[in-house]
Amino acid sequence: IHRNDPTAAPGTNVAQYRYDISKNRGNSWTTNIGPITNDITIDNVSVNGRFPEGVIYAPAGTTNADSAYLVYSGTWHDGSSGSWQGSMRGRGKLSGDTSTFNVHIDVVNGGNVAIGGSMCKGVPGTFWRVHESSNNSFATGSDAITDGIIVEKGVWNGSDVVWTENKISQTFATFDNGGATFSAATSTNIAFDPTGQYGWVAVLGDITADADSVYDPIFWKTTDGGQTWSSAIRVDLDSIQGVYDELESTLINGDPLDKLATASFEADLAVDVNGNPHLLTTVGNGTQYSILASGYDVWDITYDPTAQVGCNWTGVHLADIWTLRGDMTSDATPQTQDNRPLTSRSEDGHKIFFFWNESDINIVQSSDNNIPNLFCRGIDVVAKKITPLYNVTEGDTLWGGETTNAAGGIFGGSIFPTVGTTALLNGNTYNIPLVLTQIDYNNPSIPGSSEQPAAFWYINNLDIPGSDFNAALDQVPPTVTLNGQDTVTLLVGNTYTEDSATAFDCTDGWITPVIVNSPNTNQAGAYYVLYIATDAAGNSDTATRLVIVGAPPIADFTYSTPQLAYVVKFVDGSQNVNGIPATYQWNFGDGTGSVAQNPTHIYTQNGTYSVCLTVTTQFGTSPQVCKNVTVTSVGIEEATFASTINMFPNPSNGKVQLTFGNNGTPDMAITVYNVLGETIVPATNYKAGTTNVELNLSGVANGLYMVKIQSANGTAVKPLTIQHGK
User: Is residue 286 within 8 Å of 266, Cβ to Cβ?
Assistant: First the structure.
């Protein structure tokens, strides 16, 4: 079922619905039957029908397909209020008999709804659909507050479907979006098990008062065919075993992000033979109700009431993926699709099939999902088996997304796919009905304009053999948690107390980790204690504790005079400080000192200096160690000459003035070196009588430099600190 194409049927409009039907498993089709919405008030002005969905209903005793009905529902707006109003719904026989067509243009929840969806069947003759209860307006910058879920129930009364509505009230967290207030709620779904008695409603959203600001799955459950619904059940994705470990680490503004799992903005829902839900969604790192451009994972979030306590809500990791959202049209405001999660289920509820779109990151070189292929995996919930990962469209000449292995198809990838909610069984092979969308079928280039008519293509060979359910469901490894601190510090000779670790696995329960490596408390050093936990299936996880055994430091150092003998470079050689934070106290013997680990010092007078070092760590303070350093290269003439030279400012941001007393100097040369004695500014000659020189060192890095002045009167070296911004 789809909107009407007025170019193919003059006198009609896009607000009406038509349908296409196959009665031979999709091998041939009768198309554009209708409009099934046979009401003249549906004019695309005052009544605008959009987003139709449909299910097939065969009343009891029906043996002829033409006597079965298409039961449909869509969402409509009135054009003037600037918001969605409710549901446009009805029924019609599959024969195409127009006398059986009808439509009801119903206001739902007083006109406070978003786009409805997720139409499905419950017990025979019962139909379901959901809306968000929302005050959303089409106006840019308007608020969009969701205060609950509207569950629509349709019941066959013998000739028509009578619809009622029930509101599940729920307050969601809110956030600012361009000056408007939005509720953190999206992707509402409803589904029932094969009996129609066990059903689930699911939303991606936030109903907590904490500051996580992420989307988690939220469920409501019925066990009586939808007569009553449970209170909200929030599933913290971080608590699902394996979800946290699958997330890629991400940096925000240079600071490590404490990984918070968030669902993306789309999900699909199926319910299996046991009445348990399967919510398919993409999971990534989240913050402020957005998903970060990093690695993503596709998960089946499900529930098992028979599991041990703490493991009822669990997940099946289906795939790692790297692209999320892509533009599918060339409009000024393109139509986008994310991973487009889709589910299908075997009629007996034993098999669940999961589909999603993903582009080859090696081709797109980004997280843009604009040349996607359709991927699939299936799960047998009874046998607890899983299929391989299928790339359904790779290499297809029409629908293939370009990969490193295959060229792209004509239409540029898997565009707005839709799968049937029920997989068709043919022998031991499951055929999943699949429809793909050709944007702007008058223009073969992709992407085309969403304003032009589209074409829908039915794919009838998406077959999965039952024998492909041959691999055991991946068991998530145990999670190892350290008891006590991650890092332990001990003084040499003290006793190390082992706090051990705990490990838990949803299949095997509590597991005792094996401890590998113990610290030698009689010798200083860094030791790593490794904890390994292995489940019955051989899956393992590890955790590591750092144990630092320390002794008081022993101070020591060496020194050298690179090229300029009055410039001394000191290098710390103290013991028992490797990997341990330490503080240093130097005394250079000339009334100055330093707290750097490896300082450089310039002496201005000859002499022998007693240089002393003291080192302090958390394990104590070293005895002071002193060594004599002799400086002989500063002559009397140099000292006298140096006293006539003034250099300012010092520290400097690059512009330095040198002034010379005694009415100037003889011919001289000025050279600038770094602390390694490397020439930074080559020698520049100045004539006799110079009284003032300006040096421009704006282009050199912050640090310590030596300015060397050579003349017939002697040689002088002046230390200069460059500190830009001062």
Answer: no
**According to the 3-state scheme, what is the secondary structure of 117-167?**
EEEEECCCCEEEEEEEEECCCCCCCCCECEEEEEEEEEEECCCCEEEEEEE
The reported pLDDT for the residue numbered 305 is 86
Tell me the per-residue pLDDT of 139-198, one tens digit each, with 9 for 90 and over.
888 999 999 999 999 999 999 999 999 999 999 999 998 899 999 999 999 999 999 999
Residue 565 pLDDT greater than 70, yes or no = no
Q: Please, are residues 323 and 361 in contact by the beta-carbon 8 Å criterion?
A: yes
H-helix segments, 486-579: none
276 φ, ψ to 5°?
-100, 145
The pLDDT value recorded for residue 665 is 67
Quick count: other Cβ atoms within 10 Å of Cβ 690?
A: 18
Mean pLDDT over 105-134 rounds to 96
Residue 575 is classified by DSSP as B
Name the phi and psi angles at 333, rounded to 5.
-115, 95
* pLDDT tens-digit series, residues 23-67: 998 999 999 999 999 999 999 999 999 999 999 999 999 999 999
Q: What is the largest CA-CA distance in the chain?
A: 122
Total number of residues shown for the chain: 726
Cβ neighbour number for residue 712 with a 10 Å cutoff: 11
Which band of pLDDT confidence, cut at 50, 70 and 90, is reported for residue 254? very low
Closest CA to 235 of 225, 226, 227, 243: 243
Structure tokens that stand for 389 in this block: 């990962």
Question: Do the bridges between strand 296-303 and strand 126-134 make them parallel or antiparallel, or are there none, so unpaired?
Answer: unpaired
Distance CA 313, CA 309 (A): 9
Q: Which of 310, 126, 322 lies closest to 235 in space, CA to CA?
A: 310
With contact defined as beta carbons under 8 Å apart, do 230 and 220 qualify? Answer: yes
Of 182, 183, 286, the C-alpha closest to 236 is: 286
Q: How many Å separate Cα 474 from the centre of its chain?
A: 22
Give the C-alpha separation, 714 to 660, whole Å.
13
Q: Is the dihedral of CA 49, 54, 59, 61 positive or negative?
A: positive
Q: Which amino acid, one-letter code, is at 243? A: V
Cα–Cα dist 620/354, whole Å? 61
Give the CA-trace dihedral at 195, 198, 203, 204, to 10 degrees.
Answer: -90
Tell me the residue type at 550: G
Q: What's the CA gap between 70 and 712, in Å, rounded?
A: 108
Q: What's the rounded Cα separation, in Å, for the pair 540 and 537?
A: 9
* pLDDT score, position 562: 58
- Are the C-beta atoms of 129 and 117 separated by less than 8 Å? yes
CA distance linking residue 457 with residue 414, whole number of Å: 11
Distance CA 494, CA 492 (A): 6
Question: Could you give the CA distance from residue 569 to residue 581 in angstroms, rounded to a whole number?
Answer: 22
Q: Is the pLDDT of residue 82 over 70?
A: yes
- What residues are paired with 219 via a beta bridge? 202, 233
Q: Which residue has the tokens 């209903």?
A: 57
Tokens 């918070």 -> residue: 260
| Rounded distance between C-alpha atoms, residue 270 and residue 345, angstroms | 7
Q: What are the φ and ψ backbone dihedral angles of 467, each rounded to 5 degrees?
A: -70, -15
Burial classification of residue 554, based on how many CB atoms lie within 10 Å of its CB (0-12 exposed, 13-18 middle, 19 or more buried): middle
Could you please report the per-residue DSSP string of 72-128? EEEEEE-SSSSSEEEEEEEEEETT--GGG---EEEE-GGG-B---EEEEE-STTEEE
Query: Running DSSP on this structure, what letter comes out for residue 325?
Result: B
Which positions ≥6 away from 255 have C-beta within 8 Å? none
Helix (H, G, I), strand (E, B) or coil at 185: strand
User: What's the rounded Cα separation, in Å, for the pair 542 and 531?
Assistant: 5
